[in-house]
């Protein structure tokens, strides 16, 4: 049996914002390989479909749903459709995240609101509808994606991103403690510098005037392990926290950064 055998998992941001593997896409495919039925949620319908398609091609069950995780009605409908289709929710992987560069002076108010809504309010909305279900089931695992940018300066001013990722940590601990006696666990993952579409595109302008190879080289050098991580490194951490192997792990954080924060 797989490590998530017969569990139903919702993954937000299950597509990729560019070519290659984003964290949510990798986690969705990995969860399915481990026996989960996966609900792939993304704002980009074709990206959600693409991930669900990979899962189905490998012979597993997946449902693709287009939704804006910052929109209340969209999120409610994701949870309703998941329960309608699969009957339960065992894993909620709040993976979605966007980054917009700028400090308090440079960033617009709209940018601040957008990032806070997609990264943090989305957790509030998904939990609002998933927690009562998990409570009734007397079990469930919530895995929220934060970032090392939520606990330290990374050299790039993206104030809304840092604040949202910091907020995600205490949000997660608070949920974990409130629901610990219901058998519902909640933990955060803090990825470091991962070579995913998200990190490459928006930071193009910040590093070496659009020279992506150069940027990746600079980022690699910042990592004690000498290279950036990838989406699978984050996905395996999410798999552990989502699975029953982590049944005594709650209200904590798992850093996946190749040693950056250990320095
Ligand atoms: P990605 O950009 O490749 O994928 C994110 C997906 O989310 C995209 O498919 C996008 O369409 C979707 N999305 C965006 N806004 C949405 C919305 N409003 N509703 C629904 N879906 C929406 O990103 P990634 O690099 O795989 O990052 C995934 C998570 O990992 C994010 O939370 C990110 O902050 C976190 N993270 C990434 C890194 C890194 O270095 N890549 C580091 C730390 C944390």
TrEMBL record:
Domain of life: Bacteria
Ranges that cross the membrane: none
Keywords: Oxidoreductase
A Pfam family hit: adh_short_C2
Gene3D superfamilies: NAD(P)-binding Rossmann-like Domain
A molecular-function term among this protein's GO annotations: oxidoreductase activity
Family named by the database record: Belongs to the short-chain dehydrogenases/reductases (SDR) family.
NCBIfam families the UniProt entry points to: PRK07231.1
Listed name of the protein: SDR family NAD(P)-dependent oxidoreductase
